[in-house]
Amino acid sequence: MIKSKQLKDYEFEIDYFNGNCVVGYLKYEVTFDVVNIVDVFVDENFRRQGIATELFVFLFESVNPDRFMLEVNVNNFKAIKLYEKFGFVTIHVRKKYYKDGDALIMELKNNKDVYILAIESSCDETSVSIVKNGVVDVSTTVNSQIDVHKKYGGVVPEVASRMHLENITFVLDETLSKANMRLEDMDAFACTYAPGLLGSLLVGLETTKTLSLIYNKPFIKVNHMMGHIYANNIGSNMNYPLLALIVSGGHTDLIYMEDETTIKYIGQTLDDAVGECFDKVARIVDLPYPGGPNVEKLALNGNPTYLMPNLLSDGSTNFSFSGIKSHVVNLAHNEKQRGNEINKEDLCRSFQDAVTKSLVDKTLLALNKTGAKNLVMAGGVASNSFIRESIRKMCEENNINFSVPDKKYCTDNATMISAAAYVLYKNNKFAGLDTNAKSHELLTL
Amino acid sequence: MYTLFIDSHSSNICLALYNGKVLIKKEKESIESHSIFLVPMLKELLDENNISFDEIANVVAVNGPGSFTGIRIGLSVAKAICYSLKKPIYLISSLTSLLVSVDSDTCKMAVIPDNKGFYVSVFDENNNSVVDERYQENIDEFLAKYKIVDGALNVEKVIKYALKQEPVNVFKVKANYVKVIEVMDDKK
């Protein structure tokens, strides 16, 4: 007979009984998603009867971690053979750990699916998503506050924070019911903790930390921009080394990634972000919030008739958009003073052309500098079709492998946060329950 | 079974567990750092007393007025617990919590100041409202009439009072901001 008992919070023992007598046992510890096998013992008189195998089979049936780990004396051939039969592989050797020899650290990866629930609340979208293995979008809900903030012509931080608190439970519940999953089915909980509006971030952050505490699953903090990049992983995996062009309301960055865990800034905007600039131009021509998509719509029917300044062409891979913003403001103002009507379509088109040219030129420069053959585009502005297609064309002409997420994954969403969290999960990068939100932070992993 | 009490409306975070007899309390001064302290405090409170989430019957949360961000941190935690464990949530105003902490033979007034004015509420000796919760820049008219409570929280009394009210649907939990912020003021 085999029976399992709990020794401590995290320590368990499986006993093999012969009558009332324990003749073999297996002790193990559970830490998050690793089961550490501490001790395996079978009484001398009961060996060669398959008792150890039965203990292991019982273990595999009672727990379902990411991986099993154990440590064994290199001279214990019989045990090693048994472990290898189960699929354990040696991942490390501890020299002279035992008096009579080295210790082998063996690992058995359990190829189970990893489900991560992520929350995004950095600006004016409350979003919750469940992603499987970092690539499959199982279920995503995005609650946008656009209609509310339209009234004010932009996002009002205090209003956004208030709405996140009111919406979060609905969005969480809808995501779970669409996926037909329970919170206890999750392998980890993740959220955006930076950068963004503090009051907004905190609603998602506190909710996530609490879920992590209740279900005793790892908590993963994700940088929002990292999420934007990993939106490119949804559906298919990215190729490295790569250059990432992040274009959003808060960022215009060129980042080089040698592999999934190394990040190097190649260029940044020196002043305004490209998305912010779109929104400002929209305000100048009286388009409602959010300005970016509305500028794009008008530009569709316009011609580039207005002269625009040359954007930062200093040979660097940095951007600058404040100049063109001032230029559009002055242009509109001057025309108004003269009593001339501005052609809004043409103005939007001229502006969009100039900005796109800068993005294309600088990205090409960065590709040449880094030698990267893969380009991924990300961020809210990546949903602008004209910019997407211009970058795509440049990549085709230069033999660059180009990837840009579906438009719904370009704007803020929790799917990308969960996709990024999976990378951190694989690398055991977990965060503490004392994690605070940050309004600004450079991308790190 | 325990009631979990969460109050984060001021610079003093207060968490407590109460089973009808014993009150276990954990408090901490926190200047704009509630996010760093609150969830770890909750973990400590449970761990140190060997109590699991299964033993929590309901949650009483103070929903303001006070620090907007502070309130949201406490309520986010309270909502997550009550939603996931399907437990009832009871809300209590921070002003009411100060008032019911004190027994008085006469009317009593709770005042929470902020940078521009005062949140104020007045109860009579039987805890019936005399002056409804409000935010005013000047409260001299009330100061002349009513005695201010000392501002100390009697958590046991607060929990008992809150549990006598109706629980709130966890989806409809809202902060009690009292103050109308300028952009949301339709009158302006």
Please tell me about this protein's structure.
The complex is a heterodimer of chains A (445) and B (188). Chain A has 445 residues and is α/β, with parallel strands linked by helices. Chain A folds into three domains: 2-109, Gcn5-related N-acetyltransferase (GNAT) (Aminopeptidase, 3-Layer(aba) Sandwich); 115-232 and 413-426, ATPase, nucleotide binding domain (Nucleotidyltransferase, domain 5), CATH 3.30.420.40; 235-404, ATPase, nucleotide binding domain (Nucleotidyltransferase, domain 5, 2-Layer Sandwich), CATH 3.30.420. Helices cover 37% and strands 27% of the residues of chain A. Chain A has twelve helices and 17 strands. Chain A has helices spanning 51-62, 77-86, 146-150, 157-179, 198-215, 224-230, 274-284, 291-299, 322-337, 344-370, 385-397, 414-426, and strands at 2-6, 11-18, 21-31, 34-42, 67-73, 89-98, 101-109, 115-120, 125-132, 136-144, 188-194, 219-223, 242-247, 252-257, 264-268, 374-378, 401-403. In chain A, the strands form three sheets. Chain A has a seven-stranded mixed β-sheet, with helices on one face. A five-stranded mixed β-sheet of chain A has the order 10-9-8-11-12, with helices on both faces. In chain A, strand 4, helix 1 (51-62) and strand 5 form a beta-alpha-beta unit. Chain A is elongated and about 105 Å long. The two termini of chain A are 48 Å apart. In chain A, 46% of the residues are buried. Chain B has 188 residues and is an alpha/beta fold. Chain B has one domain (2-184): ATPase, nucleotide binding domain (Nucleotidyltransferase, domain 5, 2-Layer Sandwich). Chain B has helices at residues 34-48, 68-85, 94-100, 140-145, 155-163, and strands at 2-7, 12-18, 23-29, 56-62, 89-92, 108-113, 118-123, 129-136, 147-148. Chain B has a five-stranded mixed β-sheet, with helices on both faces. Chain B has a four-stranded mixed β-sheet with strand order 8-7-6-9. Chain B starts with a strand and ends in a 25-residue tail after the last helix.
